[in-house]
């Protein structure tokens, strides 16, 4: 089933000028498509709000087992549409960004990191700014070898946002983070894999099949245990070893109460593949 999560009020004919985020339920998968191909899927304010809404709703949907985020057409996402945001009209009052961004772009990044469902991004073409950071915040990003990851904030005269300074050093270290953030170095999909920036780079023709293979594996896994592991990894990024061990202990207590835990033990004893249900 396809539903439009958000689009322009003028979307009666043709493509919506402000774009759309569409949600497609595919069994236990939720597929979110950034749909504004004529602007390389740059995110309007309404699209960012829609992405936050879709992820928030997915977080409490017990029937979902994985999320797929992709861009329509030839690109993943060219970032936030700053040109539209800053063209015409009255100048926003002081503090506008401080009030607005935490509930929009920043909230989307937080949700990707903390939602207890595995998130896979498939990237072809450009992944820029906020679009790049959406891909980096996902649990797994599969990209075409000729895709381009770019953080052009400083080149445009302003400092990074949407988690750039948190995500990049943790993924690739400070030296490479500086190359991307201070020098604006563009990184190909192939190099992104070599750097450890993303999960996998494949030939453009193989992007869809590689993504579907990964999504299928995640959707058949023990969803609760996957979510708790993701939560523990996120917690451990700012925890001491004793704090991380304590968190693992509580998560272990929860995961051992699931039906999938019992199925995993039974499958091991019977020497067969487990049939996890996500419960």
From TrEMBL:
Pfam families xref list: ECH_1
InterPro entries, A to Z: ClpP/crotonase-like_dom_sf, Enoyl-CoA_hydra/iso, Enoyl-CoA_hydra_C
Family membership: Belongs to the enoyl-CoA hydratase/isomerase family.
Tree of life domain: Bacteria
Transmembrane segments: none
Record-given protein name: Enoyl-CoA hydratase
SUPFAM superfamilies: ClpP/crotonase
Organism: Mycolicibacter virginiensis
Residue ranges, compositional bias (Polar residues): 1-14
Annotated region described as Disordered, given as residue ranges: 1-22
Any GO MF annotation of the entry: catalytic activity
């Amino acid at each position: 089933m396809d539903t439009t999560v958000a689009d322009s009020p003028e979307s009666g004919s043709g493509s919506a000028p402000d774009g759309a985020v569409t949600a497609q339920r595919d069994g236990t998968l939720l597929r979110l498509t950034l749909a504004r191909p004529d602007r390389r899927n740059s995110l309007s304010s309404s699209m960012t709000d829609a992405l936050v809404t879709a992820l928030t709703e997915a977080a409490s949907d017990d029937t979902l087992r994985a999320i797929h985020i992709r861009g329509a057409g030839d690109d993943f996402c060219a970032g936030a549409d700053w040109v539209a945001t800053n063209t015409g009209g009255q100048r926003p009052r002081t503090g506008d960004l401080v009030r607005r961004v935490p509930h929009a772009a920043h909230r989307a990044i937080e949700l990707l990191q903390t939602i207890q469902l595995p998130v896979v991004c498939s990237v072809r073409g450009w992944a820029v700014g906020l679009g790049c950071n959406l891909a980096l915040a996902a649990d797994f990003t599969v990209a075409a070898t000729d895709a381009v990851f770019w953080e052009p904030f400083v080149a445009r005269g302003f400092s990074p946002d949407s988690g750039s300074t948190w995500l990049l050093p943790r993924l690739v270290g400070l030296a490479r983070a500086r190359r991307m953030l201070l020098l604006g170095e563009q990184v190909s999909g192939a190099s992104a894999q070599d750097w450890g920036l993303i999960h996998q780079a494949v030939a453009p023709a193989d992007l869809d099949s590689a993504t579907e293979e990964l999504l299928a594996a995640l959707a058949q896994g023990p969803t609760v245990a996957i979510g708790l592991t993701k939560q523990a990894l996120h917690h451990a990024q700012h925890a001491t070893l004793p704090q991380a061990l304590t968190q693992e202990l509580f998560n272990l207590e929860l995961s051992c109460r699931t039906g999938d835990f019992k199925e995993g033990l039974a499958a091991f004893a019977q020497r067969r593949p487990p049939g996890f249900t996500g419960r």
